[in-house]
Amino acid sequence: MSSSSFDQQLDALRSQIDEADSELVKLLQKRSSITKQIGQLKSQHALPIYVPEREKALIEARRSEAEAAGVSGDLIEDILRRMMRDSYHSQHAKYACINPQINKVVVVGGAGALGKVFVNLFSQSAYSVSVLEKEDWEHAHLHLKDADLVIIAVPINITCDIIAALPLLKPDCILADVTSIKNAPLQAMLEVHKGPVVGLHPMFGPDAPGMIKQVVVVCQGRGEAQYKWLLEQMQLWGASLYHTNAETHDHAMAYIQVMRHFSTFVYGRHLQQENPQLQELIAFSSPIYRLELAMVGRLFAQAPELYADIIFSNQDSVALLKRFSSRFAQAIELLEKGDKSAFMEQFNQAAEWFGDYAQLCLNDSKKMLLKADDSHLLRQLD
Amino acid sequence: MSSSSFDQQLDALRSQIDEADSELVKLLQKRSSITKQIGQLKSQHALPIYVPEREKALIEARRSEAEAAGVSGDLIEDILRRMMRDSYHSQHAKYACINPQINKVVVVGGAGALGKVFVNLFSQSAYSVSVLEKEDWEHAHLHLKDADLVIIAVPINITCDIIAALPLLKPDCILADVTSIKNAPLQAMLEVHKGPVVGLHPMFGPDAPGMIKQVVVVCQGRGEAQYKWLLEQMQLWGASLYHTNAETHDHAMAYIQVMRHFSTFVYGRHLQQENPQLQELIAFSSPIYRLELAMVGRLFAQAPELYADIIFSNQDSVALLKRFSSRFAQAIELLEKGDKSAFMEQFNQAAEWFGDYAQLCLNDSKKMLLKADDSHLLRQLD
Asked: What ipTM does the predicted assembly reach?
């Protein structure tokens, strides 16, 4: 084949790809107009946008169809899930309002990142919602005196002070907070307010587009019957609720938040002081190491106050970190002695402790890296 | 609207979604048959499958088209990239052969995970490739005496011994290894063989489907002109090459592999000894913490030997880990003293060291989590 006829053939095939991809754009447009109609219909009938059974059935049906046509089942599933993410978040311009008798919702700290998520969701459900920020704090009593629901969404280090300084609320007003520690704020709320109280910890960052498929931890305070509608409203927004008590929650947080942030902080500090060529480290990293490095790097693009507050406010921190530190030193001893077999024995013990979860983590992380790779995430700095 | 008319409306809209999704399956089938033709055409002309400029232009064109049609540009881009991943890996049943004069390639350890990747790629390029495994080691000289290229792909802890025990190779045979340390194997290869020698470190795990878009580190040994075709062949398979020297490479690896594996090992061991309820930790974790936990858990689904070898074989390990350990202890002191401002100052210094990379990590990890969420990755154990 001559080179020019090769070029012609390649160009012709590429034009066919372009045509197919343009058809895809049209198909996405059509699908989106249908899901918007579904969203409207559902919001009129107070039905949740996310219906796990429907999602599962839809995916199963298209997987079989794809495989029968020689198309990868994983490919169609990944594309469908990506389209669904888009439709979940464009479908719900409106959500149904579970409790139309609520006349006034106030989000204290509602201009902050997490506060905004709540403000938007309440607005989308046609609640009358307002924001109280520090500039207006001197008029707090005017904003709060007739509120039916007050949500505290201020930084963790001032949460308890803000709660203690609340003006008198209506006896049937619901008082809730959304801080990542639960015991102290819950106690503070129960003390300052005699009506219904509930502690919430939304298990997602402010980047999460809404509450669909997200977990919200619920710690009962008082008057559950009165705030039941609020839990139902969050479920309608797509949240899964996880009920527990505040002590259990905070104890787990020491392992999750404090340990990880502190270790990551030290690791970043260590790199800075060792001062290797960052550019070279990245170049020499396989995708999984780039992911590990990214998990360190991401900390340092965020506000130090937030992390300082989380680490310094948890009572269990110091003792827990000291135990970690002495285990680290013990492991170095193994290495110095060249005791590979003890290392492997301890490795196996930890593997046993993780059980099936370890394999699940391995599988999930592999799939994540493939997805990251599709989108050129975790690549080198250009 | 009556409830039954609502059900009818919802069913009708859902049928429309199903129809649109079936159209999508057909579109994927059509696209795949076109990309297969492109793959064949390219392999006949020894052209690379992955052409960054074409990919970029294609995505830009469809993004504009989508946005003009009210469809999210990110949505179409994500779907196109996912389709391209699929087509890269189904397109290349065959790759062109850069050097048809090579009569025999032998991969020592070619039955192992990484070895297999090379065996497959050489086969797909029509090289005659064979595998030498430990069962056949006693006949090594028969397998290797007429080889034109020998690739050592055995576990890291036996790499140098295997190299030292190699039988005499043809003077023009190329000897290469693919171990994750480079200095010792390269020295061993230069000693045992007087012909062309090159050290390679493929920066991807054995799960990577082929070499497309992956980085391979190249450490020159001797006779570059003679192994140049091998580098070109890897580029045709889609690899990006990164040239460096073995010492620089190994030094960086101490930071990347040893530090991360060792810390992760200690963290897993720490959790095992603290023995919190794993199920509860997972339930209480937001997506980003689940990702952090998954990066720990995944280690323990893998072979302890591999990690023991990596950690125990790097000479820089002990001193580096001791410096980390003492920095960890210093940070605990800050916490005990309640010195939040020193913590924040050090945080800011590390942030400065990471520079723009921190923000990039934050952005990438956010996007990754959205993708993980689409596919229900990193969710709780059911």
From this structure: 0.85
